[in-house]
Amino acid sequence: MKRIGLTLATLMAVVAFVLFANRATRISSARAAKTNQENKQAAYPDFTLKDLDDHDVSLSHFKGKVVLVNFWATWCGPCRIEIPWLMELQDKYAARGFTVLGVAMDEEGKSAVPPFVRKERFNVGGASQPMNYPIVLGNDATADKFGGLLGFPMSILISKDGRLVKRVDGLVSYDEIDKAIQSALSENHEVQHH
Q1: What CA–CA distance (Å, rounded) separates 4 from 42?
Q2: What does the alpha-carbon distance between residue 107 and residue 113 come to, in Å, rounded to a whole number?
């Protein structure tokens, strides 16, 4: 009987903690919408990272383009699923001013990422191809500039003028990100008459 009482007390304590933690960490939908709107208005910070040939690459180099910043790692299973989709989007929209920028977050950095990129091939449109978009070696400080990582992959779609269009934690939905890219590419194409 004592064991049942102890188990019941423990269960009640856990439930109380979960309810309290949920209430303490939940933000109102109005506040969430406001934060989301502020993020869409804010320009994302610039960063400079080394590419696989040890050259500096800055996000500002892509100003005027729609950029999908994709945080990934060579050991990440969902990242490997997503890479062919990103390659297809790169092929589909590069001529219209779009690029994927892969930010590799492997702890081993230079010893893991360049060999992976050179060796791995992905099936895109029935053909086995190497990754076709720029890759830089990332770090936690860069990820923190984008609100930190909840896991891999994580993608941030940035407009031509440097604003957040969409953030995706986890595997992207090809159709959703395709539509978001099309929309961002067609922004500001109207001719303004003075």
Answers
A1: 54
A2: 10
Maximum distance among all alpha carbons in the chain?
84
Q: Which two tokens stand for residue 142?
A: 């860069």
Distance CA 133, CA 84 (A): 11
Which residue bears the tokens 């892509």?
62
Closest among 104, 49, 99 to 74, alpha carbons compared = 104
Predicted confidence at residue 31, as pLDDT, reads 40
User: How far apart, in Å, are the Cα atoms of 155 and each of 134, 172, 182, 188?
Assistant: 15, 8, 16, 23
C-alpha Rg value of the chain to the nearest Å: 21
Instruction: Find where tokens 């890759």 sit.
Output: 135
Dump pLDDT digits (tens) for 19-51: 443 343 333 334 434 434 444 445 678 899 999
Strand partners, 124: 127
Distance CA 191, CA 194 (A): 10
Contact 156, 68 (CB under 8 A): yes
Task: Please compute, for residue 33, the number of CA atoms within 13 A of its CA located in the half-sphere on the CB side.
Answer: 3
